[in-house]
Amino acid sequence: MFSTYIIYSQTADKYYVGSSSNPEDRLKKHRNKNKGFTNQASDWEFVFQKSFEDKSHALSYEREIKSWKSRKKIEKLIVESAKISG
Fold it and tell me: Beta strand pairing status for 44-52 and 2-9?
């Protein structure tokens, strides 16, 4: 099982989109301030997660979200997802 996820940092006021077979472990790595985009903060939290049967579908969805280049569209996805699951 693979997941596409969006994490948010209140400190940086940024979203990050990624995919992983182990999202919980990946979140720990994002919080450790390694090299890359997420090193600017350590308070990253999941705000969206969607599971897929295989890696190719998860990566495809990740690329689709990243192609939006729109914070408003990402926030709309998060809100709509919360309505469905909440």
Answer: antiparallel
- The CA-CA-CA angle for residues 6, 53, 78, to 5°, reads 25
Counting the structural domains of the chain, the total is: 1
Range of the domain at 64: 2-85
Q: Domain with 71 in it: what CATH number? A: 3.40.1440.10
The closest of 23, 8, 12 to 75, measured between CA atoms, is: 8
Greatest extent of the chain over all pairs of C-alpha atoms, in Å: 35
Dihedral sign for Cα 3, 50, 6, 33, please.
Answer: negative
Continuous H helices in the chain? 23-31, 55-68, 71-85
Structure confidence by residue, pLDDT tens digits, 29-77: 999 877 788 988 999 999 999 999 999 999 999 999 999 999 999 999 9
Tell me what pLDDT residue 85 has: 66
